[in-house]
Design brief:
By secondary structure, the protein is of the alpha+beta class. The chain has one domain. Helix content is 26%, strand content 26%. It is built from 3 helices and 4 strands. The chain has a 4-stranded antiparallel beta sheet. The termini are far apart.
Length: 96
């Protein structure tokens, strides 16, 4: 591995919550929500249907168009996802 210039290589125990739900608009979400000590308390959210993953905190949820762009959702779908994620993401802090 002499050709690799590692910037970081760490192993950490994490916690992952798997959630499947259907919104009032009948959109199904299958999510993996990973909590880690990295990312300043933000969660690693993976949409298991599309394979898209993002590091998400409350500041990201407040950013207009973030969920639509990141997860390729309609505005209505993003609103439903945002409402759920606000329950699980919480505020960003420096400990998890």
């Amino acid at each position: 591995m002499n050709d690799y210039d590692f910037m970081s290589d760490t192993t950490e125990d994490t916690s992952t919550r798997f959630v499947t739900f259907i919104t009032p608009n009948l959109k199904r979400f299958d999510l993996a929500i990973t909590s880690t000590n990295r990312f300043y308390g933000k969660k690693l959210i993976t949409d298991l249907q599309s394979g898209r993953t993002a590091i998400v905190g409350q500041d990201d949820l407040d950013e207009e168009g973030y969920l639509e762009f990141t997860f390729k959702l309609t505005e209505e779908e993003a609103t439903d996802l945002r409402q759920f994620l606000e329950l699980v993401v919480g505020t960003v802090n420096f400990t998890d």
